Amino acid sequence: MRHHVYLIPGFFGFVNFGRLIYFGHVCDALGRELAARRLDVALHRVSVSPTASIRTRAAQLHAQIAETADGDGPIHLIGHSTGGLDARLMVTPSAALDPGVAVEAVTARVRTVVTVATPHLGAPLASLFTGLFGQQLLRLLSLATMATLRQGRLPMSLLARLGAAFARTFVPGGAALALLEQLQRELVGYLPGDERGAIADFVHGVGSDQALLVQLCPGGIDLLNASAGDRPAVRYACVVTRARPPTLRGQIGLGRSMSAHATYLLYRALHRQAAAPGLAPPLTASQRERLVADLGQMPSPRDSDGIVPTLSQIHGEVLAAVQADHLDVIGHFDDERRRPPHHDWLTTRSGFGYGEFHAVWARVAGAIAGSTAGPGQKLP
To answer: How far apart are CA 93 and CA 107, in angstroms?
Structure first.
């Protein structure tokens, strides 16, 4: 019997641009782990609108599954960041996505929902990207992320101006829209010529429909949680990420790499905005046990992966809790010696690498296959 596994992206939302593939490293690692468990699996990468509402994205997810999940085998959903919310809403019993579209034929086949660095209780950082200025800022961050993942490093002159633009956003009366627009044009020009048009078109759509960003704020996500109930027959599990908090010592430890210093400053700004000081979700004993076993201590409300608060990411069984930033966990960490190379999107000094990455996705494969490591077994 063939299993269908769907990989759902976060609000960057792309499948691939040339050699830049959102879930490229995940497909390789997860595919090997599932093959080792002798499962007949078809891996599918989902494309959803980047910042459309969760309901719209969930409807797009359902449509793609309905078109591709041939047969009657089990369906497994893996959502990174906002993709985890799309999966939860689509699987919700009696979910109303598109008028006149019955989803039960698909959702009744779903056996597993794994969420990875997903803001189940909201992400305070989302409020930074609302409004006209926020749209431009989000587009700039999206472009910078894709350019870095594609090319490895940005030119130092461009990186310095990018960091300065973001730093000014936290000061009243800060950066002007004209500066952000100019930086966007320069970043597009830095990309390979055959990919510029597609990426520019994609980024233009990022932030234009802001329904998702409002929903990701803690108040908006509260409404989703009130309506998106778990399906009894589905196994819900999560991968939780916590980046190392930025420090002056960490900054000094970067040595002479000016690009690392510049992106670390950006990380410090994002990490500060991502904190959720009042967050105190009720946790089960097994969830606490896994968090402490993997991280060595309970995360605090101020901990995050640079984008999503760590305590906001817990829903169902905790498969793994790792010291990683928001994109490390899907393979975008720094390891250019490997082929294909891994490019880091941001310097966070989390220490997440190839071994940790494969250990995480081995646990995800174990959840899909029906077995995981016990709570006391640590990641290597």
So the answer is: 8
End position of a domain, from candidates 157, 182, 204: 204
What is the residue range of 198's domain?
129-204
Predicted TM-score of the model (pTM): 0.87
Write down the pLDDT at residue 151: 62
307 backbone dihedrals φ, ψ, rounded to 5°: -130, -50
The β-bridge partners of 116 are: 80, 239
Among 28, 26, 23, 3, which residue's Cα sits nearest to residue 12?
23
Q: Are residues 124 and 94 in the same domain?
A: yes
For residue 277, is pLDDT > 50? yes
Report the pLDDT value the prediction gives residue 145, as an integer from 0 to 100: 73
Residues 177 and 312 occupy one common structural domain:
no
Residues 204 and 238: their CA atoms lie apart, in Å, by 31
Please provide the distance, in angstroms rounded to a whole number, between the alpha carbons at the two ends of the chain. 32
Q: Which residues pair with 75 in a beta bridge?
A: 4, 110
| Residue 18 pLDDT grade (very low, low, confident, very high; cuts 50, 70, 90) | very low
Alpha-carbon distance values, 46 to 11, 147, 253, 327 (Å): 12, 21, 39, 17
What per-residue confidence (pLDDT) applies to 339?
65
Rg (CA), the chain: 20
The number of folded domains in the chain is 2
How many Å separate Cα 49 from the centre of its chain? 14
Let me know whether 196 and 209 are in one domain: no
Contact 77, 113 (CB under 8 A): yes
Amino acid at 255: G
Phi, psi of 178 (to 5 degrees): -60, -40
pLDDT recorded at residue 372:
47
| Contact criterion met (CB below 8 Å) for 57 and 211 | no
